[in-house]
Amino acid sequence: MSADVIIIGAGVAGLTAARALSNSGLNVVILEARDRAGGRILTRHIPSFPTPIELGAEFIHGQPREIWDVVEAAGLTAVEVTDNHWQSLDGALKESDFWPQWEAIVSEMREAGAPDQAFRQFIEERYGAEDRQEVKRLALDYVEGFNAASADRISVAVLVAMEDAASAVDGDAAFRILNGYDSLVDWLLAGYDPQKVALRLGVVVNEINWSRGDVEVIAHSSAGHAPLSFRAERAVITLPLGVLQAPPGAPGAARFNPELKEKQEAIGKLAMGMVMKVVLRFRERFWERSVFQTQPVGEHLPPLGFLHSRDEYFPTWWTSLPVRSPILTAWAGGPAAERLALRGEEFVVGRALDSLSRLLGLDRERLADLLVAWYTRDWQADPYARGAYSYIPVAPWTRLDCWPSRLRTHFSSRARRQISTVKTGRFTERWRVAGGRPARLFVVSLPSIYFELSARCLDVYYK
Q1: Helices (H), 237-334
Q2: CA gap 125, 136 in Å, rounded
Q3: Which residue among 78, 183, 263, 418 is buried most deeply as judged by most CB within 10 Å?
Q4: pTM across the whole model
């Protein structure tokens, strides 16, 4: 099968590329290994239960026009998330006062300047005093959980850059798409020219053979192993970082021929973060009616939006407010997710109930009795994702500047204060390594198609 352009991956980046290219008159073939489009947007709609269950991307962070132009064009309804944070501490609950403390830490990171260092090294050096231990622990938990990162690796310079980018678009505010994030995928699917685009689901790419002006993709059907061949003048690769880092021969891995040695070096400079997400559906919103032990005793807590703790497995929880629905979402990122990865659904849900029981001081058997259903997704076990989203480890990065593009998509993927995306770019800056060489990935050696390695993903460009 031949076309003008082959797009590998039908996530947000791939679908947006298909929409732009087909509307410019090019014939496009999209190859997607899964039996669905959307990538790490995964929304479940349960019969007789009106609230969408988001197992992948959930939040829009801030108000960047790149996101809101799409939301408004699609006629989607987005509601602002209730920004009330509780903290579980020594068996009692209190309203969290961490965010002003985090702002102070960011200011210190900004003042630290070069040379760059890992966040753990920074926080240990600056917050080693006895009276700063609690703030240090909260900061470590926040950085690792929110960024799905190891504090031993994630760059301080990157954290500062992300905070600055968030501030520029009111990143403190977070929103949900009321009808589910998959409504955005549906709009993208409906927006390309059906006469120009062929979407092939269940097609697993094995090899990408390329030369100037010619790309051949060898693949197989996920239902069988008969080889399939696709040919085009150009290709746009939107595979997640975890898949690009997969060893040859691993499920989902794609081999480039000729090899992309310099690009693999750039890929190796990034890290793929782990996330475990569990949504628990209960018979009632018991957290609105229960009486909790508070600190100080008798303190009135605002309606629960987010719950933070130092739990070993699920340190972060949130409700669906402002929508009042009987679901609680458990979130583990970074090292906490590593402890849960590949352990199986029964183990993960059991640890979630244990965590909730400890944090709220409620009987576990009561919680289990109230539980109607659970939904979970281990993105590390997905061979076509191999993780949740990427981050930049500390390295000899020397320069941050803007790299505008004609085709860039920004869609949010995770919790508070972040301009994260469904793996199409966490922020608009790019990084240069020492010596001025850009850490970007030219997928095919053509002057027209390439994409850049960014803080959380790969940004796709077509010029």
Answers
A1: 241-244, 261-268
A2: 10
A3: 418
A4: 0.83
Rounded CA-CA distance 330/337 in Å is: 11
* pLDDT tens sequence across 282-319: 999 999 988 888 877 777 788 999 999 989 999 999 99
Tokens of 460: 């796709």
Burial class (CB in 10 A: 0-12, 13-18, 19+), 3: buried
User: Hey, what are 323's tokens?
Assistant: 């929508």
Concatenated DSSP letters of 254-310: -EEES--HHHHHHHHTSEEEPEEEEEEEESS-GGGT----BSSTTPPPPPPSEEE--
Residue 270 tokens read as 């990034």
Which bin fits 170, alpha (ψ -120 to 50), beta or left (φ > 0)? left
pLDDT, average across residues 154-167: 91
- Residue 186 belongs to a domain: yes
* H/E stretch holding 68: helix 65-73
φ/ψ of 46, rounded to 5, equals -95, 125
Q: How far apart are CA 364 and CA 5, in angstroms?
A: 54
Total domains in the chain come to 1
Are residues 389 and 420 in contact, defined by beta-carbon separation less than 8 angstroms?
Answer: yes
List helix spans (H) across 79-118: 98-112
Note down the domain range covering 224.
2-42+56-77+181-271+420-462
The candidate with the shortest Cα–Cα distance to 159, out of 417, 389, 338, is 417
Instruction: With respect to residue 124, please indicate whether it lies within any of the assigned structural domains.
Output: no
Angle in degrees, CA 152, 157, 159, rounded to 5: 75
- Structure-token pair, residue 194: 């059906």
